[in-house]
Design goal:
- By secondary structure, the chain is an alpha+beta fold.
- The chain has 3 domains: about 160 residues, no CATH class; about 250 residues, Rossmann fold (3-Layer(aba) Sandwich), CATH 3.40.50; about 120 residues, no CATH class.
- Helix content is about 30%, strand content about 25%.
- The protein is built from 13 helices and 32 strands.
- The longest helix is centred in the N-terminal third of the chain and has 22 residues.
- The chain starts with a helix and ends with a strand.
- The protein binds adenosine-5'-diphosphate and magnesium ion.
- Adenosine-5'-diphosphate binds next to helix 5.
Amino acid sequence: MKRLRSTLDRIDSKGYGAYKDLSGSHDFGSFTLFVDRVQRDPFAPPSLIRVRTRENAFDRDLFANQVRRVAFEDFLTRSVEREIRRVVRGNRGSGGSGRVEIQRASQVVLPRTSMVVESGYVEARMAVGLPARGRSVDARAARTVLLEELPEVVRKGLVPAPEGSVDAESSRLHVETVEDADHLRGLLPGLDLVAFVADGAVLPRESGASDRLLEEGAVPFQSPQEYRVEVELPNRGVVSGMGVPEGVTLVAGGGFHGKSTLLSALSWGVYDHVPGDGRELVVARGDAVKVRAEDGRSVSGVDISAMIGDLPGGRTTEDFSTPNASGSTSQAANIAEALEVGTSLLLVDEDTSATNFMIRDERMRELVRREPISPFIDLVRPLHRSLGVSTVVVVGGVGDYLDVADRVILLEDYAPSDATARSREVTRRFPPRAALTDRDVRLPQERTIRASSVDLRRGKRQSARGRGLHTIELGRERVDLSYLEQLAEAGQTEAVARVIGEWAATGEVRGVGELVREALASASEKGLDSLGGFRGHPGEMSLPRAQDLAAAINRIRPLRSGPRM
Ligand code: ADP
Ligand code: MG
C-alpha cells in the first residue's frame, strides 16, 4: 500500500502512460491488489485489476461442490457489483476516470471469470478507469479510488459479516436455490419429463426489454391437476408443479393469454436463476433449443433434407448452403443444426415461425404441387418416435396441430388447464382434411467445417471478440447473434468468440459437434480462465452452452463446410 501511495505521488500530473508503473501486485494487508493491465489513455477500455483476499472466512458449505461453488461465485459477483454502486462515486475526470466495474450478471447463474472462490482466498476480477485530468495522471483521485473506495468495496462485498457486510443468510439462500434448480433439472429424464414449472412461479417479465420479474399484476403459475407432479429437492423439500412429459406438447390459447411467456420461461429453464427471479424452479432439459425463423441468415452445408426436398433447379438439400435463407429454410436449418449438436427438446412458437414451415393446408396442397417443404406438423411425431426428440409448440391459429399432439395445455387468463380430451372431441367433429404423412426421420449428417474460412486479420492485428450480447467480431467480419434467444449475457458471447478465435488459429477441419464438445470439456477441466490465453486478468467471460456455441459458429457468413466424416 505504501509503495502504491508513493508511486502515485511520484507520477502525479505526469503523462497518462506513467500509470504503467502501477503494474504488478500491491499488498493491502487484508487483500492483495494485482494491476494486470494498464489502459493507454483515459478514453481506452479500463485497466484490469484483481483483488485477492488474504483468507476465505466464508462457511465452507457455500462452496462444498461444483454447483454450490458456481452459485456462490455468482452471488459474490453480484455482491461486489452492488457495493460498487453504493461506494464508488465514479466520474473523476476525463474519459472513464474513476469508474469501477465488475462483469454484469444477467438473471441467470453461470460459471464466470469475474470471481474465484478457493479455500484459501476469494478473488474478484474488476476493471478500473484510472483517473486523469485531461490526459495526465490525477493522483489525488486515484488515491481515493484505489486506497479508499476499492478497500471498502472489498470489505463490504467480499468479506463475510461481521468484519465485512456479506450476509450469511442471503448467501445460503442463493446457493440453495441454485442447488435445488440444478437437482430438479437432473430429475427430469428419470421422470420422463422435459420440463417442470413449479406452482407459484412468476413467469411474466417486467417488459420486453427487461428480464426481471413483473412485480405488479402477475398471476402466479398454478399447475393443472392432470400434470401435477411432486418432486423432492435437497433444500426446499417437496415441491409441486406442472411436469411437461416427453413427446409432443401443444400450448394453445387466445392471443395475449400468456403462451409465449410460458414458452420463453421454458427456454430459460436451461439455466438456473437467482432468488427473486420468479422462475427459480422453472427448469427444462439443459439441451433444449428454441427454434425460430430467421430469414436472411447464412447457412453452410447443412443437411435439411428431412424438412425440405429438392429445391428449384434440382438443388439438393443434403448439403444446403445459402447466404440468404428464407423464413422456412432458415427455420429448417436451425432445427437441423440443433439436432446435429444434440438436443432432446425443441421449443417452437408460432409467433416467430414461418407459416409455410409450420403447416400447409389442403387447398395449398392441391394448388401447389411443386412444394419442397414438408411442414413441421409432419415432422414432430417422427422426431419423437425415431429420434427421441420432444417438442413443445405454441399455437394460436393452426388447429391442425391438435392431430399430432400427445397433449394440449390451454392457457386462459394466464391459467393453464388440460384440454387434451376436449381437443380429441374437436378433432372428431372437425376431422383432419389433409392426411398426415407417416414417415421416419433420421439425424442430419454431421458436417466438418474449415478453420481456414475464418480470417481473423483486422489491420495488423488478429481479433476474435464479443461486442455486447449479440455480435461477435472476427477480423473484419461480424457475426449476428440477434436471434439466439437463449444467449443470456455478453460474457457468453465473449467466451464463444474466444473459442472460435482459438479454433480459427489452428487452421483445422473439424466436426461442429466435436469442436464444440471439446472446447467446453476443456473449459470445464481447465476453467473458463483458460479460454484465450490466461495471463492475470482473463477478461469477462461466462460459460456458453454447446447449443449456443454451435449456433454462433453456424452463423459465420464465410464459413465453409468440408466433406463429411
Ligand atoms: P400470447 O403469446 O398468448 O399472445 P404473451 O405470452 O405474449 O401472450 O403474454 C401477453 C402479455 O401478458 C404479456 O405482456 C405478458 O407479460 C403478460 N403475461 C403473461 N403471463 C402472465 C401472468 N402469468 N401474469 C400476468 N401477466 C402475464
Ligand atoms: Mg405469443
